Amino acid sequence: DDILVIDAGDTSTSGIGAVEDSEESTVDPATDPDIPATRTEVRAAHGSPEAFTILFGSGPAAEGTDTAASLEEWAYYGEGLEYALSGDEVVAVDPVELRPGVVAEPVPYDPDSFRPDMDLEAVLAATGITDYMGGPVEPMIEGGHVYFADRLAWGITDDRLRYVEAFALTAEDSETETSE
What we know:
It contains 2 helices and 12 strands. It is mainly beta. The strands form 3 sheets. An 8-stranded antiparallel beta sheet has the order 5-4-3-2-11-10-9-8, covered by helices on one side. Strand 8 (about 135) and strand 9 form a beta hairpin. Residues about 1-25 and about 175-180 have low confidence and may be disordered.
């Protein structure tokens, strides 16, 4: 199976150059009982993420589930945290800090609305998106298409959703005074 790879630099769920690099190490939820261990616990503790990225695997369903494995990042900028999830498990928690002049506006999308069996029409129906642009990414990925809408990007290969990224960060509005 082809894998959709999109590399736009250091973006994760944050936008290019909008997040400060942290010198703190990743927190391991397996060794820290105060860290939520599952996506359900993360949602209970923090609510819906302000931004997220999902990469759906193309292999067989994860053990005990009916969907292919996924890797996800959920960002909570107001709390300074970004969770990495593999399937239902939290595998890492990283501190995240916005650069000056950048603000987070939570996205109107929910990561639980997306499944790997979705095609373009299903994504549009789940999100309510009517205005978008996109097209094929061949010859890099045979049968692959990438799409962009307001604060959301997604990739589909062979009518299966492979990638979703919801962007929460924007430039801070600055009022400028002019003298006459």
